[in-house]
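Morning run. Coffee first, then this:
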Amino acid sequence: MTRVLVPVRYPLSEHSRRTLSEALRVAKERDADLTVLHVNLYHRGDDVRRTDLKRTVEKAFGRITNARYVIRDGFLVEETILEEVAATRADVVVIGRKQMGRWRRAIRRLVDDPNIENFLREKVDCELITVG
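And here it is:
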């Protein structure tokens, strides 16, 4: 079965809602399982619980039968997302344009001309959909 991963902020920002809406569309179109991911950042003292994330998403979009909700703790959002992509063997990652910018800056530290899609394809072999 196809797996779609969508990282979101909590509480859901308008941008996260648009990104999640696109991920839901993609998951439905491909009859895929959906993983909704939030990263608790150590340095911010975030302590979002899985039940909080699920309740908020379902309040905004209704019950999603093929979804799982994941909370990961990390120092860097980008690194934690990549770890989750690899762990879930995601086929598709749906991210917001702001997240793409963060990934670009993080990868720029490693290489001269970051092409995020190529980087992700090399590292985790998945399709990347960016939502504006």
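The two ends are 27 Å apart (CA to CA). Good start to the day.
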